[in-house]
Structure to design on (139 residues):
């Protein structure tokens, strides 16, 4: 487990980029947990940019965005609006797992079975002064 204290948004982007470069060309499922506005989508943006993907937006309303990167596919999911496990079936998530895909899932903590399938869980805690504490844990 690794912990990072008092990161501003630039530092959050750099941390995400470093993780992306470490995982580039390999598959991994990354769960992102934290309150609304804690930096989950900002983290995904930094991660994607390191892979050469320029435009990332929150998939809160569409739930899943697919992006092609040079050596991996990036799948960005957001479980914020989901309330029942049955809603996960139409996302095709199980078909994406175990392949050479990078999967980032915001609000993964809403479904403990999916969280347990994550290779890495990143937890965000927003603090006064627009800084965050980040914990990265390998499952």
């Amino acid at each position: 487990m690794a912990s990072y204290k008092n990161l501003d948004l630039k530092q959050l982007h750099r941390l995400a980029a470093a993780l992306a470069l470490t995982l580039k060309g390999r598959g991994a499922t990354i769960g992102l947990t934290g309150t609304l506005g804690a930096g989950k989508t900002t983290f995904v943006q930094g991660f994607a940019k390191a892979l050469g993907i320029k435009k990332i937006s929150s998939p809160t309303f569409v739930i899943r965005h697919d992006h092609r990167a040079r050596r991996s596919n990036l799948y960005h999911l957001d479980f914020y609006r989901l309330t029942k496990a049955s809603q996960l079936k139409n996302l095709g998530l199980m078909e994406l797992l175990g392949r050479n895909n990078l999967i980032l899932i915001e609000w993964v903590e809403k479904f403990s079975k999916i969280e347990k399938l994550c290779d890495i869980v990143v937890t965000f805690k927003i603090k006064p002064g627009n800084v965050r504490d980040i914990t990265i844990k390998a499952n």
